Amino acid sequence: METADFMPGAAAIAAIKKDIEVYEAKRASVARAAKWRAPLFVGLVVVFVALIAWLFNKVADPNEQWFSTPHVFLYVVGFVVAVVLYFRAIRPAARLQQSFRQTLMPIIFGFIGDMRYQHDVTPHSFDRLPRETVGGFTMSRFDDIISGRYDGFAFELYEADLWDGGATKNKATTFKGVVVAFETIEPFPGILVAARRASGVIGFFRGMFAPRMQELPSGVPELDAAYEFRTNNVEAARPLVTGRLAQALKWLGETWPDEPARVALNGSDGFLLLPQPKNFFELPDISVPLDYASHVAPMISDLGAMLATAALVRKIGAS
């Protein structure tokens, strides 16, 4: 299955562009209002304070012009009021900035059936991800979470940052990238994990916390050097590890060459982990006009590539 199979058609792209135009009109209006509201509000405070200070000079001692106790009190109050009015002036822009992603993500990925966008929450499928796939971690953060159904393919895709922050002062990342969770075509009777081969302390703790998981080779030297294949059902896993899973990992090595992709099967749940420091769904600042070709099309292309890759992995356990 090719990436193009997961790309929206011409009608869907036209609808996305139309929705972006509506959003752009609102964004531009709020941006223009913020440009004059803040200087106007703060300027009025400055003029008012200067006028009152001038009136104070009429009754103040000649040696305390502009710096008497009432003057100082006036300046402090004026400063506080100016700060309050400044934030009130930019509040509409701040509100739009806060809802920026919640507004645009459903628009950009509106061609996905039952599309749901979340941010900074724990994905529903994360608890079912075998921990042997990512190693030990004590801290986690999730950025964009996109779930839905496309072309008969239900999925949950999310950006995850997992690290061990308890042992050292430095952030020891165990995984940072994209996780695609999906329902397998046929359930695997147990757990099967293809994870980056660990060494030293990481490998020791992985073995200690997964005593029921057995390691088995794929028979492909380059894969066995890069991966650990672990399972709690050797008989069911062996034909997959030496067959379709090995073929899929070789293809993934060419598609995602920076760091080995990881795969996990847990019953009817499948997981594809793509290590990548890049923020795939990064949007421009609210002050920058949103352009379909520059900002939106690359995100749709990346999503299509990841869905196509996950669709290939789904076929590993199919008969």
Automatic annotation (TrEMBL):
The record's keywords, sorted A to Z, are:
Membrane, Transmembrane, Transmembrane helix
Q: From which organism does this entry originate?
A: Mesorhizobium australicum (strain HAMBI 3006 / LMG 24608 / WSM2073)
What's this protein's name?
DUF3137 domain-containing protein
Residue stretches spanning the membrane? 36-56, 68-87
| Domain of life where this protein originates | Bacteria
Q: What is the lineage of its organism?
A: Bacteria, Pseudomonadati, Pseudomonadota, Alphaproteobacteria, Hyphomicrobiales
